[in-house]
Amino acid sequence: MSNHLQASLNKEQLSVQEYQKEAIQAGVLHLGVGAFHRAHQAVYFDRLLAHGNEQNWGIIGVNIRPQDSQVFARFIEQKGEYVLKTMAADGATKYEHIRSIVQQIDGAQAPLDVDAALANANIQLVTSTVTEGGYYLDENRVLMLEHPAIKADVDGARNTLYAFLYAGLKKRSETSKAKITLLCCDNLRHNGELLEAGLMQFIAAKQDPALADWIKENVSFPCSMVDRITPKPSQKHVNDVQTRFGVDDEMTVMGEDFIQWVIEDNFAGKKPSLDLVGAQFVNNVVPFEEAKIRILNAGHTCVTYQAALKGLTYFDEAMRDNELSQYFTDFILQDSIPAIGDSVVDLPAYFNIIAQRFSNANIGDTVERICTDGYAKFPIFIFPTLEGNYRKGRTPIKTIQGIASWFAFIQLTNEGKIKTPYHEPNKAALASFSNDATGIQAFANDRFLWGSIPTDFPDFVEQLTQAIQASMEKYA
Ligand code: CS2
Q1: Does ipTM top 0.90?
Q2: Which of 300, 366, 368, 381 gets mutated to test ligand 1 (max ligand atoms within 8 A of its CB)?
Q3: What is the pLDDT of residues 112-163, one digit of tens each?
Q4: Where are the domains of the chain?
Q5: What's residue 211's pLDDT?
Q6: Burial of 76: CB neighbours in 10 Å, binned 0-12, 13-18, 19+
Q7: DSSP bridge pairs for 180
Q8: Torsion angle of alpha carbons 294, 299, 305, 310, nearest 10°?
């Protein structure tokens, strides 16, 4: 990679926001600089920096995972700059040069540098994308203190975002003492509340009531809903960017043209004027979160294992498969939307937009990506629809079918019959789900996945068992 991405890029094909990078000061610290952050929050801030009065909102991008240090070293070499390619369903394509991540710190190598940055009064906002599983909370929002990663962090290690927030906020509370906002950007319902719950329990485990008091006075945890389908960049995409622009960009990302960010207006630190660049500030994010998680994410999750069982590679292929596209429509219209009930969001219109986005063949979003991390996703994405329907006296047949397809996918993966690789960080939790009556019982009664549904509504266990049998017969 040339160290001068900007100089070597052919500006005619590439849009770049008009600001002098040298004039930018960092005001945001982001934990977890994955593809989603680079295609989403970094893009909003890149646009914001082009507004004259908003030049104090550069981002410090922080890596917290040792296994990502090597890739992150490339990012540092690239000075945090990269090319984002976006593609619309009609083929319209755009390349943008993103420069908003003005500073990069590998926290896995230099944790004290992260603490210093977090203590600096110029930093007004911390954003995080550490995946749904990265918060280590059970179904009752209880921090998993027995989890080895959390246990080690309570003893002073740096595995999870809590260890970084704890150390950085402690330093801040003792030095600059400036107020700050912690804005969770992961796909969790009530994500701000969850981050707050996890962090406060972590601090309790550290036995640091003084810090807990300081946080109550000086830190806010707004909820937010983030949205942009961001496939893992393929080698083909990387090659395209490299040859098109003559640069060795290893950090390039790609995504759909659609982008959305809805943020609860609750800032303890200064507030970036993200509404100037398309984000929405609202008093209550819940209706937006619920719509997104229960229609988009749940739609992905319920369809993807069936797509894998059918041997499909790309998600848009599932939308062109008559059976699966009908299933998707039925799941949303029969189960998801009725369980949501009244909403400020026009849910049928929202569903139509998502159906179009899912059909976008140009982004090459893979079934493999969406199958990833099922154990963390089901309680977040699917559980509310399951529960909502049972509590309303309805049987969510389509939801149950989606759950059963995951069970079949797990079994057939174990038997080596599925070509889609399954990336499951919680593999150990699936160990008891064997392909027999005991395994089905264990699966249907798993409290992390389904809460009290199996005991409150024993029909669920019966109906799921039947759906699993049907799924196994269909796909085995
Ligand atoms: C997907 C999301 O991983 C998943 O299950 O549903 O990554 C989805 O693409 C994003 O949330 C879109 O904003």
Answers
A1: yes
A2: 300
A3: 999 999 999 999 999 999 998 899 999 899 999 999 999 999 999 999 999 9
A4: 5-283, 287-475
A5: 98
A6: middle
A7: 219
A8: 160
Ligand 1 neighbours by CB, cut-off 6 Å = 187, 227-229, 297, 300-301, 370, 377
Atom 10 of ligand 1: nearest residue by CA position: 229
> In the structure encoding, which two tokens stand for residue 364, read together?
């090459």
Find the 473 Cα to ligand 1 centroid distance in Å.
29
Average pLDDT of span 356-376: 96
Which of ligand 1's atoms lies nearest the C-alpha of 301?
5
96, 129, 269, 474 from 255: Cα distances, Å: 12, 17, 30, 34
Q: Tell whether pTM > 0.80.
A: yes
- CATH architecture of the domain with range 287-475: Orthogonal Bundle (1.10)
Helix and strand numbers, DSSP H then E, in the chain = 24, 13
Map tokens 């003492």 to a residue.
177
- How many angstroms does the Cα of residue 369 sit away from the middle of ligand 1? 9
Tell which CATH classification among 3.40.50.720, 3.40.1090.10, 3.90.550.10, 3.90.180.10 matches the domain 5-283: 3.40.50.720
Q: Please tell me the residue having the least CA distance from ligand 1 atom 13.
A: 227
